[in-house]
Design goal:
The protein is an alpha+beta fold. The chain has one domain (about 1-60). It is built from two helices and four strands; from the N terminus they run ββαββα. The strands form two sheets. The protein has a two-stranded antiparallel sheet with strand order 1-2. Strands 3-4 form a two-stranded antiparallel sheet.
Length: about 70
């Protein structure tokens, strides 16, 4: 994985191996401290948005309500 920062833009490049891991159910958690910022970015895979929302709920992560 390539991680970089250019001004206020965060850049994440995923390799084929990263994609394989994501598709195998292994999310990528990026600590933004590595790039001089606070917080984390979580990258994960799901076949559909419903699958992804269910996986987050199962992990105890709540998403804010999205406007219709």
């Amino acid at each position: 994985m390539l991680k970089a920062r250019s001004g206020d833009r965060f850049i994440f490049g995923l390799s084929a191996k990263n994609i394989e891991l994501l598709m195998d159910g292994r999310p990528i958690d990026i600590d933004l401290k590595e790039l001089g910022a606070d917080g984390h970015v979580l990258i994960f895979y799901g076949k559909t948005e419903a699958d992804m929302k269910a996986a987050l709920e199962e992990a105890g992560i709540e998403l804010p309500e999205q406007p219709s």
